[in-house]
Amino acid sequence: MKPPVAMDSAGGNSGKLFDEMPPRSSDRGCPRSPSPAAMEHGFDRHCVVLGGMPKKRSRLELDAGVSLWAGLQPDILGIVLHFLPCLADRARMRSVCRHWRASANGHVLPPPLPLLVLPGFKFSSLSDKGDLMPVRCVPVPKEVAADDLRCVGSFDGWLVGVTPNKDRSDEYNRDADGDCFLVNVFSRKVIRLPQLCHMRYNFPAYSSKTLRIINGSGEVYFRVNDIYTMSLCNVALSASPDSRGKYIVAASSDHKCASKLALWQPGMISWHICAGVDIDGPRDLTFYLGKLYVLQRYKIRLFAFEVGEDNGGLMVSRVKRCLSALPLHHPYQEGGAISCNMVVWRGELLLIIRHYSDNYRDREVLKVEVFALDVNTNPYGLTEIHSLNGDCIFVGLGGCKSFPAGLHHGVEGDHIYFVPDDWKPYDTFVYCMRDGKMRSFAVKLLASEFDVDQLSRDFPVWLLPTE
């Protein structure tokens, strides 16, 4: 009986992620690689003598072979683990025997390389060569299992998932989202959030207010316990649900061209809805220094929301426009299309801008720029940077993440990995901060797995597990 796998996670049971992954159809029927103990004794798990005819081995002989490897010192195992940056490789090592699993759990390791969650709840790990490893399917917890499950955000080992609205009778709400939840892909813990299609008024608890945008000419409207219908595009969390303190979930919705920003925290029975012409359109969201930042991706307009608490839960007390244009005399100030994202990197808030050619039908990425934002000026200052000090950044619709690639031997840093966040095949590439060059990234793999309807909004999401 194969011992259970224990992988790298604070919960100590993240090995289930890869241990329970059924292989792809192309992998079925292929024999599994023999264990080190089996290699030592010239047989594999199927009792086939390497280079000879099949020969049966007893369980006693198998256990005796494994015990030879069990004698390795924990310090040696720890050194080996430091040379295994991929989560799946660490799991394979820990699954050799109980001694290896117990010894490996006692070491403090750098976080494993990021995972990419593809449509259909499929996972692929970034390799130390900067490419994606073969895709594996992961069983979804039964309480949230659905054929149309899609991921819209992540934080540490948690994913934000949504499923379609179950009520198909109303034509307006038919293509809206229904259930929304947080799921830890390692511990399988599920946290349910309020429904995304809420069609019943709660008059005694209803409230609304309007805030003028500082440094702007518009207003933002807030409604509590109102009716709403949403289809989520992307979600950001202020902290991990594993943390002892409270965390905030911010979600961007665009249902029937009605753009909304929704806020929720534990204890609330419904979403707080924010709307306004100035914050409409595709948005990127991130929390930084206690504020929620909302970026209009195609206009370089950045807003800071100051979020507090009142008797009804969350309360937005102030909205300020922090940025509305690139620096003066910037060569890409006018003309061409742009796409913007934000990421928190080493205590700084960065703005990442992709510049595209004017030809819509044959559009290509012309340039990538990265700016550090100075949040102490009004409006915010921009300083272009050309190095990430050996780190990497991962950009996707479910949020942007920074990763300390320099902690892993052989993993190249100062790269930005882009995966599709819209139906644009040219947005799958790797950008090198050092020389400004771009190269393709996992094009064949993403093309073979990215076979979903263009109306589904089901895009890849980066997942960065913690040790």
Automatic annotation (TrEMBL):
<feature type="region of interest" description="Disordered">
    <location>
        <begin position="1"/>
        <end position="38"/>
    </location>
</feature>
<protein>
    <recommendedName>
        <fullName>KIB1-4 beta-propeller domain-containing protein</fullName>
    </recommendedName>
</protein>
<dbReference type="InterPro" id="IPR005174">
    <property type="entry name" value="KIB1-4_b-propeller"/>
</dbReference>
<feature type="domain" description="KIB1-4 beta-propeller">
    <location>
        <begin position="137"/>
        <end position="431"/>
    </location>
</feature>
<dbReference type="InterPro" id="IPR036047">
    <property type="entry name" value="F-box-like_dom_sf"/>
</dbReference>
<feature type="compositionally biased region" description="Basic and acidic residues">
    <location>
        <begin position="17"/>
        <end position="30"/>
    </location>
</feature>
<dbReference type="Pfam" id="PF03478">
    <property type="entry name" value="Beta-prop_KIB1-4"/>
</dbReference>
